[in-house]
Structure formats: C-alpha cells, structure tokens
Amino acid sequence: MTDQNDPQLIPPHGGYQGLQSYQMSEIVYDATVVFCNRFINMRSRTHDQMVQAARSGKQNIAEGSMASGTSKKFELKLVGVARASLEELLLDFQDYLRQKGLALWSKDYPRAKEVRNLCYQKNRSYMTYKSYIGASPPEVAANTMVCLIHQTNYLLDQLLRTLEKDFLKEGGFTERLYRTRSQRRKK
Hints:
Elements: H1 20-39, H2 45-67, H3 72-99, H4 110-117, H5 126-133, H6 138-170, H7 173-186
Helix pairs in contact: 1-2, 1-5, 1-6, 2-3, 3-6, 4-6
C-alpha cells in the first residue's frame, strides 16, 4: 500500500492529443497526403517519402508523449525526430516550388498571412485548410504547406525547450527511481 505523500514513480503521461504541436502535425499529415495525391505521381519515391516524413512528424510526438512516463530522454529524442522529419518535409515542399518554377511566398505575402491566421481558429483541422490544398493550384497548395510546417516547427521548438527545462529541473526516470527508493528507505 502506498502513501499518498509518496512521490509518483511513473507520472501521468500521454495527453499528446491536447498539444498544439500534435494537432498541427496531424493537419500537416492529412494535408500532405492530399497534396501528394494531387500533384506527385503515386508511384514516385518522393510521394512516399513526403507522406512518411509527415507521418513521422505526427507519430513521433505521440510516441514520445506516451514514453515520457518512464523516459524523458526518449521523449526529447522522439520530439526531436518529429521536428527533423518536418524539416525534411519543408525542404521537399520548397524543392517542389523551385523545381516547378513557382514562387515561394515570403512570410509577409498577403496569402501567407491569411493562411497563418487560420491557426487561431478553434477546432481547426485539415478542413480549415482544405480550400487552400485540395482545391487550389499547386503554388497555393505548396505554399500553404510551407506555412503550416513553419507553424508546426515553431510549436515543436517551443515544446523541445519546455521538455529540456523540465528534464533539467526534474531529471529522468532513473533519478526519480533513486529519489523514490531513498525516501522509502528513510521511512
């Protein structure tokens, strides 16, 4: 029987669905699938790699969150992998624009601001951006993806900084295990 004052060895973990970075990564994944199905040959290696990079961004956030109860180090690593996967995807969209001779919007371009402002809508999903990706020409769709990925990467950078601070403050599972065992022995 454990005392309610005993520190919790495995803290609450998961909850990734509530993270803005996860929510945005899900939009990026869904939108990437639509973009690739519309504009990139399904048999192309690029199609598969872009979809997998988007999937990796989303899935690694979830996996890191679920692993955080026993490994903050692993959580940090997986969120870093998610960030790296989305950076790879960002480069793919920028390459697409360059190779097709299409303009890359600056962050101050009016349509870019319009897309960025959509992130403030409540209950946003792929449907929030559908008209920009599923029904627009390739230049609009690819630039919308660039905006979405930049926003998601920003959120992941914030998450990584928070996880780093928490890890430095609280330590990891091994340190928590040692503290818990030491406190129990003192009783």
